[in-house]
Every structure is written in C-alpha cells, then in structure tokens.
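If I may wish for something, please walk me through the protein I am sending here so I can picture the backbone:
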Amino acid sequence: MRIEGSVALVTGAASGIGRSVCEKLLELGAKVVLVDLQKKAGNDVTCLLQNKHGSGSVSFISCDVSNQDQLKDAFWETVSTHGHLDIVFNNAGILDEERWSKTLDVNLVRLYLHPTRGAVVHGTLLGIEHMSEGGVIINTSSTGGLHPASFCPVYCASKFGVVGFTRSIAPSALQKKGIRVNCVCPGSTDTKIFDAMVVDLSEKQKELRDNLPRQSPEEVAKAVISLIKDDTDNGQVVKVTYEHGPEYIDYQDVVV
C-alpha cells in the first residue's frame, strides 16, 4: 500500500506503540486520526504532531474503545471529515487482571450488551464496513497471544483471541472487499502496560516480569508499517521482540 495520501485511524494513539505508529504514518504522508481514552494526553500529542506536520494532517477523538457507540462514532467522524479511510490500527489495550472483564472488553470483545462485538472485534468490523478495496487493518496482539505468561492469564486469553480472530477473518475480508487484515505481536515493550498490573504477584512472577528486556515502541511501529506497505501480507502474524526483531509466525494449519 502507498501510505502517502492515505487516511489512518489509530486507537491507543496517545502513547507507546500507538503514538509511534502515528508518527511514522505522518512522516510517510498520511493523515492520521488519533483515538484514545486519555483526553489530555491525546490533545497534547495531537498539538505536538500538528506543529510538526500541519493541523490538517492530525486530529484527535476521545473515545472508550470498549464503548461500541463511541467507537462507531469515531469511525463515522473520520470518514465524514476525510471522505475515506484506508488504514485502521486497532492498538488500544490494557492489562488489568483484577478487572478482568474490562481487559477482555478493551483487548478483544465486549462481554455485555453485544457479546460478539467490542474493541478489536468491533474495530475490525467497522474498518471492513467503512474501507474500500486496498484498505489495511492491523490488530495488536502480544507475545502473550502466542505463549502463556503466568502473571497475566486473562491478558493472554484476550491476546490469543486477537490472533485467532485476525487469522480467521482475514481470508473473507480480502475475498469480499479486498481488505487485508494482519496482526502484530510485540514482546515486552517500553510502555506503561505492565505497570498497570495491580494484582499481587509471587516473587517468581515479579522477577519474571521485571527482568524481561524491553524494546522501544519504535521497533514495533516499524513492523506495523511493513505490514501496511506489503500488499502480499494478509492473515499474517508478526512477532516483534527485543532479542530477534520482527519474525513471521509460520502456522502449519489451514484456515478454512
């Protein structure tokens, strides 16, 4: 995909990986809509990016991605303002094992009201609804969606779900509308998500978590941009770690 001239919607855009992806998209000539629950942080980042790239290139929408009406409105506002939507990065996520239902709501699917929609699921379906042929959707999972982590089982459950959902919906999205859907699985990254954990951990779990080497959000953003650019990528799952960088996961099963 040619990023220059495209319109992108990025959730969880006020910090971390989301912010880094926004910066790279802007550098490549896209117009970017930042979506985040953190209103002050979102406005602050938007102002900084507008000063660098121009006020017409960046806008901000305050939105709780687990609220289906708010997320739907964010997509409608984006398309109404720009006339089209080409890239969706469903990146917003939390790690809160105590409020496990909220973790599932934000990271994967809302448990109440509409059990089949919410967060990544709803964001993907909205992307498919609003985008034309050639559009790209990238969903953020985690290495916790590829292998278990004892200190965050609910988080892992949500991220395993993101991988399975992405791989399962990608063939039909491409066949029916010409839209590619891929997934990025960052390893431990220098963001606030691990600091948000409030459950009591055993000493062994704390040691495991705290000793994980962390990569920069920029390294993950590079992998996301690559998935957007490469028109041959669909249903791909890319693991990104401090130790090995980007790695395509070679699944041996057949998606039917």
Observations:
- Confidence is low (pLDDT under 50) at residues 110-117.
- The first strand starts at residue 7 and ends at 11.
